[in-house]
């Protein structure tokens, strides 16, 4: 056929096949085909090269339709059956272009013809989903119902390199497909996802092999201490690497398409955002402001990707995998590159709002809040402050059943626990920046009235006109008018309900928000979906406090934002004393304490224990609390944060953060005890007057005994254990001493 069509002459074809065969010999250091290779091996080599050249010339010179015709004619000559216009192929072995062509042919059929071959389309779709997106069966089962061939074709067109696009990208695309097919028109019209590109997971292997990084491949099997010690050197090696020319060319073309739009480079590993394992916050994401020269922007982009590749081996990620029984899984990292959502305001680039939203509200601060209506953690600016516990800042917590109901009772407390720092892209400095809100927020900011209120004389009042005479320092980010005067809350509640229904599991999403025409009387909102993942680990548990409680049996009791749950049979308590912690003079001493907590966590892996200590656990700022990571506490059953006069700021509820996601998946309950609350109980004798068993388990940590205590419940009251009962109907959690023979 190639010869008849004049694509290539037979003599030219044969000469080229022989030339390529000789070149392949040279690559194997065989220089004489007549003497160094048996004749039958040479003929086999030559035959393989002829087949390769046939495929090459056909692919680049003849249309798919002609190929299809030839196959049909050949099948007819051999008496092989085929259905209608479809070629009989094995989708598992066929190239992607053939699968897309055949799927398109099926979709174009008349309804009566298509019905007979619909099963072929489903098979093709499943194969494409497994090879392009994810082979997780729980995901494939849902995705095949909602993703179209056009959706899959778009992925293929925007993908760089081989391999799958990973869990984060998979969740975003599936959520969009579900909502586009099922949500009301008023939601669909104001729903979007960012312009997105995908770096396939197989590029990870290319990068590692090209840069001689294979020696780091066994990190996941090393001891925890060695993993932590070697990680900085590993990151340095990854940052010194480089990509193959074809990947650099594709990334350069991507930058050409997006111009100077700011980008975010996000991890999208094969395990991320799956059913039961979210890997929330385990891998890195990086903003690329993209305001430099083309070469500078390319370097910034590749360095961001390389940092994320290195984060595959970060201690928290490896220990998380170990705790989930995923240590032996081949964890490749795909990359999701998206344009940052927002708009320019002066020298800064930021969205009107961003956040994380849950379809189930596990932490209610009032009995009237309905769990099934969901929950939002909302911030002004980039959404980083919504998913991380950073600084002494507070997002707006929104119960979607009662959007205007604040966790705090008084305007003074609402102001105190409001957002004070905003994350932005500084276009002038070409950098990500965290700034006090009053350095960015000005009276001429169009959405001002929707995101802020004025605090004056102990009251919060909404802005009805442009701010003129009021002191900008009195502005408080409450989002009250956004929640009251726009359909944001109702739209988001509907979206979460739809996604939970079709995921057959509670979900959480990340999003940005744009207020369309803020000067309109009834402005609309556009919600841009960044991520969606199932929370299949959530379990309903009933817990009720006993009708009467002996005060002598109470170890601690707290009210407020309390989860629903039970922890029975607590035999040990890891206690970081507030006085001891804040008396540690150097950052190194605090690091030693965190490391010792991690060692206790490993030593107590077969015990039922809880952790109690000051301020915010998991914060990035050691001045605010114990700066532990997931890998330091994942065997614990509860984290109890203490606050009060002299101890530090009230622990901001972690619900919605990546840290909280870890706690939920591992069934670790977060609690806060406000020691200044007259209704709170904290049994100081239990925590301070009992023997400290730290040195028995960790002799090397004896010099930390003034601040780190390991308490055995039996030492305080022989024959006893602690039962922790959390009753969100009564908004109360109580840790009770009970006899061991009462263990449930």
In terms of quaternary structure, the protein is: single chain
- Using DSSP, what is the number of strands? 28
**Largest sheet strand order:** 2-18-17-9-10-11
Biggest β-sheet strands, sense, barrel: 6 strands, mixed
Q: Report the sheet-strand fraction.
A: 15-25%
Number of structural domains = 4
Helix/strand-derived category reads alpha+beta
Helicity level: 25-40%
Low-pLDDT residue spans: 80-84, 652-656
Q: Helical region count?
A: 27
Distance between the termini: 78 Å
Approximate shape: globular
Mean pLDDT: 84
Rg:
30 Å
What are its keywords?
744 residues, alpha+beta, Dna Ligase, domain 1, D-amino Acid Aminotransferase, Chain A, domain 1, 4 domains, six-stranded mixed β-sheet, five-stranded mixed β-sheet, globular
Describe the structure.
This protein has 744 residues and is α+β, with helices and mostly antiparallel strands. It folds into four domains: 10-157, no CATH class; 195-340, 2-Layer Sandwich (Dna Ligase, domain 1); 345-443 and 483-534, 2-Layer Sandwich (D-amino Acid Aminotransferase, Chain A, domain 1), CATH 3.30.470; 551-742, no CATH class. It has 27 helices and 28 strands. A six-stranded mixed beta sheet has the order 2-18-17-9-10-11. A five-stranded mixed beta sheet has the order 1-3-6-4-5. Strand 14 and strand 15 (459-462) form a beta hairpin. Helix 8 (167-182) crosses helix 20.
């Amino acid at each position: 056929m190639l010869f008849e069509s004049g694509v290539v002459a037979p003599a030219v074809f044969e000469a080229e096949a022989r030339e390529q065969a000789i070149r392949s010999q040279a690559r194997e250091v065989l220089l004489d085909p007549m003497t160094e290779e048996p004749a039958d091996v040479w003929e086999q080599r030559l035959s393989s090269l002829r087949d390769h050249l046939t495929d090459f010339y056909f692919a680049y010179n003849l249309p798919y339709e002609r190929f299809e015709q030839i196959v049909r004619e050949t099948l007819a000559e051999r008496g092989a059956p085929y259905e209608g216009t479809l070629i009989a192929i094995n989708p598992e072995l066929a190239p992607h272009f053939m699968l897309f062509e055949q799927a398109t042919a099926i979709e174009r059929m008349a309804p009566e013809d298509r019905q007979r071959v619909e099963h072929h389309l489903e098979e093709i779709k499943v194969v494409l989903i497994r090879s392009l997106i994810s082979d997780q069966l729980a995901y494939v089962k849902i995705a095949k119902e909602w993703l179209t061939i056009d959706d899959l074709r778009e992925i293929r067109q925007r993908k760089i390199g081989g391999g799958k696009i990973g869990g984060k990208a998979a969740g975003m695309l599936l959520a969009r497909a579900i909502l586009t097919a099922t949500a009301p028109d008023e939601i669909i019209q104001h729903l979007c996802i960012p312009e997105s590109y995908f770096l396939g997971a197989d590029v990870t292997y290319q990068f590692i092999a090209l840069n001689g990084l294979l020696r780091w491949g066994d990190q996941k099997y090393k001891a925890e201490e060695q993993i932590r010690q070697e990680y900085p050197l590993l990151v340095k090696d990854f940052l010194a690497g480089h990509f193959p020319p074809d990947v650099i060319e594709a990334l350069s073309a991507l930058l050409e398409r997006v111009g100077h739009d700011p980008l975010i480079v996000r991890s999208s590993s094969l395990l991320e955002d799956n059913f039961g394992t979210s890997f929330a916050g385990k891998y890195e994401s990086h903003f690329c402001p993209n305001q430099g020269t083309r070469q500078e922007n390319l370097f910034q982009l590749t360095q961001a990707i390389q940092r994320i590749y290195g984060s595959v081996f970060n201690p928290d990620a490896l220990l998380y995998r170990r705790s989930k029984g995923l240590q032996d899984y081949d964890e490749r990292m795909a990359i999701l590159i998206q344009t940052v959502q927002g708009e320019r305001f002066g020298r800064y680039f930021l969205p009107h709002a961003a956040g994380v939203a849950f379809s189930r509200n596990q932490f209610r601060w009032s009995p009237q809040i309905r769990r099934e209506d969901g929950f939002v953690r909302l911030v002004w600016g980039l959404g980083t402050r919504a998913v991380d516990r950073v600084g002494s800042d507070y997002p707006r917590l929104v119960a979607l059943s009662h959007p205007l109901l604040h966790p705090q009772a008084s305007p003074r407390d609402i102001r105190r626990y409001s957002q004070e720092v905003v994350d932005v892209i500084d276009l002038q400095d070409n950098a990500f920046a965290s700034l006090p809100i009053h350095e960015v927020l000005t009276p001429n900011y169009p959405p001002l009235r929707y995101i802020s209120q004025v605090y004056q004389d102990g009251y919060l009042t909404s802005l009805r006109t442009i701010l003129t005479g009021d002191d900008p320092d009195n502005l408080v980010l409450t989002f009250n008018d956004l929640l009251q005067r726009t359909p944001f809350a109702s739209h988001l509640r509907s979206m979460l309900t739809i996604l939970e229904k079709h995921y057959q599991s509670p979900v959480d999403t990340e999003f940005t928000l744009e207020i369309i025409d803020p000067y309109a009387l009834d402005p609309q909102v556009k919600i841009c979906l960044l991520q969606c993942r199932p929370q299949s680990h959530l379990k309903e548990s009933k817990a009720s406090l006993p009708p009467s409680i002996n005060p002598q049996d109470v170890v601690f009791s707290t009210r407020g934002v309390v989860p629903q749950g039970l922890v029975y049979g607590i035999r040990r308590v890891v206690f970081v004393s507030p006085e001891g912690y804040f008396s540690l003079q150097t950052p190194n001493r605090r690091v030693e304490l965190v490391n010792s907590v991690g060692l206790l966590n490993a030593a107590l892996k077969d015990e039922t224990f809880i952790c109690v200590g000051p301020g915010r656990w998991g914060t990035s700022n050691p001045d605010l609390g114990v700066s532990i990571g997931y890998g330091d506490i994942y065997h614990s059953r509860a984290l109890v944060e203490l606050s009060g006069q002299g101890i530090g700021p009230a622990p901001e509820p972690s619900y919605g953060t990546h840290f909280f996601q870890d706690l939920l998946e591992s069934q670790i309950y977060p609690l806060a005890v406000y020691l200044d609350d007259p209704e709170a109980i904290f049994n100081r004798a239990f925590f301070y007057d009992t023997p400290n068993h730290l040195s028995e388990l960790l002799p090397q940590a004896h010099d930390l005994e003034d601040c780190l205590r390991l308490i055995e419940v039996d030492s305080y009251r022989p024959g006893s254990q602690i039962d922790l009962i959390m009753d969100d109907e009564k908004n109360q959690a109580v840790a009770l001493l009970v006899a061991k023979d009462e263990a449930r």
